[in-house]
Each structure stands twice: as structure tokens, then as C-alpha cells.
Design brief:
This protein is of the alpha/beta class. Helices cover about 35% and strands about 10% of the residues.
Length: about 625
């Protein structure tokens, strides 16, 4: 880090500072980011963030500005950055130096000190550029059990909490706020500054694969929980603080209303359907996020059908290209003034290999594209339409040359560009990155490995569980019993006082862990092959269901089911003595509930339908509207 002493350089005269301020400054040092040996206003931490942004914006070339409007991926062994234990230094330098990108998502999952080391390394690359603009490094959620590309990351030693659905099951705002505070410390310790979360999407379509990362189906509850999450991450209810993490709430708006649950990452899920009444509910779930001044908002992928604003139908384009959703509604009506960051790859082309991959030929990363409603446009026109709709920064791409071409062709005004770049830069200044973007690698290891915070996370795993059935006072189970296990670690069972047997005939009881049912309906689509879709009921032939039938026919049976989606449990409930719902929990956490070491406190954050027929009749945009649900929300 280049530090210059003002006492040696003596170069404040041009800023006409008061004599006392100049004398004070001359005893201090500053980061000479543009390497000119002078303290320029954007380098002066005594000035307001607004003054510093104004000064820097005037110094930037148009190439640097359009580069700032990209939010790319830090590459590792592959361009998507999720394979390997270090960044590709050469390609990172190209993206920073040539494409002028200063915002990146990191997908590394390495030890905390290694993460800090890698993030420091790319900050040093950025410091060597013409203006030394520091990088903003973002991440998908890292503190939960699920790891699905494009949605979440797991690993690296971060404290392991239940999914956000589990936090919703507990329903404790102070706990959600505390989770945000802990995750914030872990992120900042390792050099991560932006959380691409939380999801304020409503879980209204049970088959939707993104349900697990929501806060459930109730708009008011979702709004409150999302607000607490943002408060914890950003450090206050009034916006981003210096030691905070910028939260990017998503996905504006209506994402959960996907017919058949087919997700908007995929061509076959490019449409969501609502009416004005249901749309208003989905919008209201963002209320506290906006009130607490979330640093960022991410628009949704799908085209929203069936909705009118001010008497006009929404333009049939994805939200990232929709002026009505981003400018008319979000900025003008809701008064939002922060960053609008597009979801990933909305400007990419979607050829036949993307929209209809050939059978037997799974899509590669070249087919990742979500330009819904603007497929026929050129990339240049997509960038222009996105900016003119209200996008400040484009996620998942580094195509600054294309955006530059759109500007030079007169398709985007400099006023638009300057407004967007100002929002990106403001977050960097608010986080203190211009004063020091580096982190202490040894401290990162200590902070992320803090046993007290890991214990808090483990406690939350236990609290989030829901006892759906406890027949005949099955709980608690006494130690010393002989137990047959399915998908449960025998070592954890023994640690809880059980004798593990492999023969059901010798067991006193059975304990099984199962997942909510799913199908792989689109195995050749990049995201469809990675998402749980389709039916939610247990059927003959499914491995988990066969294990339940076998065990329950022999001995009293306890089943813990992970509800990443609202499973149909009608033909499970009648076979078991104990039925527990989990939302991300270790074996030890489940066994603690079973033996009575702790108490499950959760309540269902959505209803569980009674059958597929009832589920298929419900409106995907409306919360909890299936006929005669097996378990109601709040059970």
C-alpha cells in the first residue's frame, strides 16, 4: 500500500485548507492512489464522502466509468471462479487493468486466512491502476448449509446457520439481526464487502427451487425479517456504516410467482404471473429493506405478466430492462436512491443451446444467459436498454467495451453513466475502502473461527427445527436405546448415548434424515440440472420413502426432513412417531432435539399442502392458498 507523508510532500496549498487543518494534516499520511505525490480531495479522508466522490468522478475517463458499471467474477481455475484455491492473477489483472472493472463476486471457498490473502492480492492489483480505485468484493450467502451455483456458497469455515427459512421459522428479529452482525464481521475480516442477499421474495409457489433462501410466505413477516437482516449486515437502520457490509436485497419484484416453480434462471422459467393484488403483496415484502436504506437492490429475472402500473401493462421484458419497475416504481414511487445491480448475465445471448439444449448435451457456461424479453436485441442495445431502465451495474459480465460502444453510439447519456458510477463509488467510500481495503490475514482466521459465534449458529440450528408430530410423547428419547440409522452419522448417535445397530430386527427405534422430494425435469439446462424441481410428494421407489417404509414397519420411527421446499407429508405422517422439519441442521443438532438436550422452537414459515392435486390448483402468486393444507403456516 503506497503511503505518502504530508509532512514530506507539503502539498495542501491548492486545497485552501484552514491553517489548523493544514497543520494537522501535515503530521499525517495519506494513500497516494493516483501516484502523483499530492493529496487530492478523493484521497483525503477528512472530507465528506460526497466531496470525494465528486472529485474522483471528474478525474475518471469514460473507459473507467463504464468499467465501474460492470460487476464481474474473480476467476479461479475456471471463469466462474468456484473451482480452485486461488484467483487467476493474470486474468484478474486483465479485468482490472484493461476492462477497468472494480467490482467482483468471489466464489472461493478456502480457509479464512487464505481468503484474506487472495482478496488482498487483487486489491494490490487495483492499487496499481491509474486512479487506484479499490475493489468492491461481493459474495452469495456463505453461512448456510445449501450450496447451489448461482445462489449460495458453502465452505471456508464461516459460522454455519440454518437457512434463512430456518431463521424465519424461529421468527426472532433480534436473532436475525445478530446473525447479520456475525456474518458481517466474518465477511469484512476476509475482505468481502457486499452481500448479494437477502431474498425478500415471497415463497408463494411451493415447487420453486429458490424457496429455501426466502423468509417464507407472509409479506409482513418477510419485510420485518429482511429489515433485521439488512440492519445486522450494514450496521444500522439508517444505511451503510464504515464497518458494515453492503446488502443487496433481491429480487425486485415478483420472482416467487413462477408457474410450476420453474425458475427464471432458465429459458423455460422466463415468465412470472401475478395480478395487481398479489403483486402489491410481493412489493410490500421489500418495505423494511427500503426503509432501512439497503445499499443495493437486484431486479428479478423473469418477465412479469398480468400486472399494470398507472393503468399501463408492464412491458414484457425482464425487470433489469423494465423502466416501469426500476424507475417509475422503485425510484420515483418508493424513493429508492441506492445502487441497482442487475442479476447475472442478463445481457448475454441465449442461442438454441441456451433455450433448448439438445438431449444428452448438458449446457456449459457459454449457455448462461437470461436476456428475457430482449433476446432479439444486440448486446449493445441490451446494455443501453438496461441503463435507460435504471440499472447502475451489470452483474456477471465484464463487457465494458460493449457499454462504451453504446455510449459512443448515443444510446446512453453521460448523465446516466455519471449517476450510476456515483452510486457505485459512494458505497466504496462509505465502506472506507479508499482509506484501506486490506485485511489482516491472521485476524481473519481468528474471527471466522471464533468458537462463541459458531456456538450461536449451532444453537440456532436447534431452535429452527419444528416438531410436526410427536405421537405418544415420543420425545425425549432415553439414552441407551438401540437405534438403526439412515443418513445419520453413527458417531454422533453414539455421542448421544445410543447403541447403533445395522440390523433393524435388533433395533429399539429408527432415526432417519430425508430430503424434501424433487424431480430433475430439465437435466440438460445449466441451472435446471442444479435445481430441485417438480413433485413434492413421496412416492414408491424413492430411496428416502422406501427407507421410511422399511423402518416404520419394524420399529418406532423418527424422521427429520429438510424442507428446502414445502414437502407433502401426507403419507409420511401416518407411518412415524416423530416427525421433525429442519431447514439446515447438523446431525448433532437433530439428535439434541430427539434426546431432549434442547427444544425445537420453530413454526412453519409457510403451509405444507396435503397433496399434489391441491398444490396444482393454487395460485403461484398468492401465499398459502392450497385447499385443506396438511399443516398450516405457523404450525
Amino acid at each position: 500500500m503506497r503511503i505518502v507523508s504530508l509532512a514530506l510532500m507539503g502539498c495542501l496549498a491548492s486545497q485552501a485548507l484552514p491553517a489548523t487543518a493544514q497543520a494537522e494534516a501535515e503530521t499525517k499520511t495519506f494513500r497516494d492512489l493516483n501516484h502523483n505525490g499530492r493529496l487530492d480531495p478523493y484521497e483525503d479522508k477528512r472530507l465528506t464522502d460526497e466531496v470525494r466522490v465528486d472529485d474522483l468522478l471528474k478525474r475518471m475517463t469514460i473507459e473507467e466509468k463504464v468499467g465501474t458499471m460492470m460487476h464481474a467474477t474473480l476467476p479461479s481455475r475456471d471463469p466462474l471462479g468456484h473451482d480452485g484455491d486461488h484467483y487467476d492473477a493474470k486474468e484478474s489483472a486483465r479485468l482490472i487493468g484493461e476492462a477497468k472493472v472494480t467490482s467482483f463476486i468471489t466464489r472461493l471457498a478456502v480457509a479464512p486466512d487464505q481468503m484474506a490473502r487472495e482478496n488482498n492480492a487483487v486489491q494490490r492489483i487495483a492499487e496499481g491502476t491509474r486512479l487506484g480505485i479499490p475493489l468492491t468484493l461481493s459474495s452469495d450467502p456463505r453461512n448456510h448449509f445449501q450450496a447451489v451455483f448461482g445462489a449460495s456458497t458453502k465452505g471456508g469455515g464461516f459460522s454455519l446457520w440454518p437457512e434463512t427459512l430456518g431463521l424465519a421459522a424461529i421468527g426472532d428479529l433480534s436473532l436475525v439481526r445478530r446473525f447479520g452482525e456475525i456474518a458481517r464481521r466474518e465477511y469484512r475480516a476476509t475482505g468481502i464487502h457486499m452481500a448479494l442477499s437477502p431474498q425478500a421474495d415471497l415463497a408463494t409457489e411451493p415447487r420453486w427451487p429458490r424457496t429455501t433462501a426466502t423468509f417464507g410466505s407472509d409479506p409482513k413477516a418477510v419485510s420485518r425479517l429482511v429489515g433485521a437482516y439488512i440492519e445486522g449486515f450494514q450496521g444500522s437502520r439508517t444505511g451503510l456504516t464504515r464497518n458494515g457490509v453492503a446488502a443487496v436485497v433481491k429480487h425486485w419484484v415478483g420472482y416467487g410467482a413462477q408457474p410450476e416453480g420453474f425458475d427464471g434462471h432458465n429459458y423455460y422459467g422466463r415468465v412470472a404471473r401475478l395480478d395487481n393484488a398479489s403483486f402489491a403483496q410481493h412489493v410490500s415484502a421489500f418495505d423494511d429493506a427500503l426503509a432501512f436504506r439497503t445499499a443495493g437492490v437486484m431486479p428479478t429475472y423473469p418477465v412479469i405478466e398480468g400486472v399494470t402500473l398507472d393503468g399501463r401493462p408492464l412491458e414484457p421484458v425482464g425487470a433489469g430492462f423494465n423502466h416501469q419497475l426500476l424507475t417509475d416504481l422503485l425510484r420515483d414511487k418508493k424513493g429508492y436512491r441506492g445502487l441497482i445491480l442487475s442479476d447475472w448475465a442478463i445481457t448475454n445471448d441465449c442461442p438454441t443451446s441456451c433455450s433448448a439444449p439438445a438431449r444428452g448435451k448438458p449446457q456449459g457456461i457459454d449457455a448462461i444467459a437470461m436476456p428475457w424479453g430482449v433476446e432479439a436485441m444486440s448486446k449493445e442495445d441490451r446494455f443501453a436498454k438496461g441503463v435507460n431502465a435504471g440499472i447502475d451495474q451489470f452483474g456477471g459480465v465484464a463487457d465494458s467495451a460493449i457499454l462504451l460502444a453504446a455510449y459512443r453510439a448515443g444510446k446512453i447519456s453521460l448523465t446516466h453513466i455519471n449517476a450510476s458510477v456515483r452510486r457505485v463509488l459512494m458505497i466504496k467510500f462509505q465502506l472506507g475502502l479508499f482509506d484501506n481495503p486490506y485485511v489482516d490475514e491472521a485476524a481473519a482466521l481468528k474471527i471466522v473461527n471464533d468458537p462463541d459465534t459458531h456456538a450461536e449458529a449451532a444453537k440456532a440450528q436447534r431452535r429452527a427445527q419444528i416438531v410436526l408430530e410427536n405421537k405418544g410423547g415420543f420425545l425425549p428419547v432415553a439414552a441407551g436405546r438401540k437405534v438403526w440409522l439412515y443418513k445419520v452419522d453413527p458417531a454422533d448417535a453414539r455421542a448421544h448415548g445410543f447403541t447403533v445397530v445395522e440390523d433393524l430386527a435388533l433395533a429399539d427405534l429408527a432415526i432417519l434424515r430425508v430430503d424434501a422430494p424433487f424431480e430433475m425435469l430439465h437435466p440438460y439446462h445449466f441451472f435446471g440440472s442444479r435445481q430441485n424441481e417438480g413433485r413434492l410428494d413421496f412416492q414408491d421407489g424413492q430411496a428416502d420413502y422406501e427407507a421410511i417404509k422399511r423402518a416404520s414397519a419394524a420399529v418406532p420411527t423418527a424422521v427429520a426432513i429438510n424442507l428446502d421446499r414445502p414437502a407433502i407429508l401426507t403419507n409420511i405422517r401416518d407411518k412415524v412417531q416423530l416427525l421433525i422439519a429442519t431447514f439446515g441442521a447438523s446431525d448433532a443438532a437433530i439428535l439434541d432435539v430427539i434426546v431432549g438436550n434442547t427444544r425445537a422452537e420453530g413454526k412453519l414459515p409457510f403451509e405444507l399442502p396435503s397433496g399434489m392435486a391441491a398444490l396444482e390448483k393454487q395460485d403461484p402468486a398468492v401465499p398459502d392458498d392450497s385447499e385443506a393444507p396438511l399443516y398450516s403456516k405457523g404450525h
